[in-house]
Specification:
There is one protein chain. This protein has 194 residues and is of the alpha+beta class. The chain has three domains: 47 residues, Ubiquitin-associated (UBA) domain (Helicase, Ruva Protein, domain 3), CATH 1.10.8; 91 residues, 2-Layer Sandwich (Tetrahydropterin Synthase, Chain A); 37 residues, no CATH class. 54% of the residues lie in helices and 17% in strands. It has eight helices and five strands; from the N terminus they run H-H-H-E-E-H-H-H-H-E-E-H-E. A three-stranded antiparallel sheet has the order 1-2-5. A hairpin with a 5-residue loop joins strand 1 and strand 2. Helix 2 crosses helix 3. It is globular, with a radius of gyration of 20 Å. The termini are far apart. The model has no long low-confidence stretch (mean pLDDT 86).
Amino acid sequence: MEITSAQIKALRDQTGISVMQCKKALEEAGGDAEKALIILKKKRSEAADKKADREIGAGAVGVYVHNTKEVAAMVKLGCETDFVGKNEEFVTLANDIAMHVAAMDPKYISRDELDDAAIEKAKEVFAGEIADKPEDMQEKIMEGKLNSYFKDQILMEQPFVKNPDTTIAEMVTGGVQKFGENVTVAEISRVSVK
């Protein structure tokens, strides 16, 4: 099947990934745009895994101030080089994540930041809810409740406010694929008058 430039352009517009990668994904998917999107997502996480150990030495600060001037957020988005850190699309990614932080007010960047005290407090609250469940299921139910509770507080696991089909983690790994460097959310900060 012949892949048209219109198909490639549509996939590129949707993902922001290079023309060549979009073309390869469409060829691999036999022209099916949905399959090509899945292929690109799979390759995105593979690319992120390969680059995860690279040192972060540059980046950009994304800023968002709501039009009411009552809430603002800053995000330090790290990358490997100044070349990428000054890239307009990279800065836009940082600003989009800052807008998300302002809207959703996450407490943690990733699950790694959860401390034992927060987990134990949540377990204490949920213990009463699962007490009447079968003993062999309690651990699994508790795990599900904890995952659900903390998912709303962890930036990387939250669905992006402008596109709920994509998580913040997928946006960051998409940045790794797009820019060819390790990209990471290093810091978040949010202030509000309420």
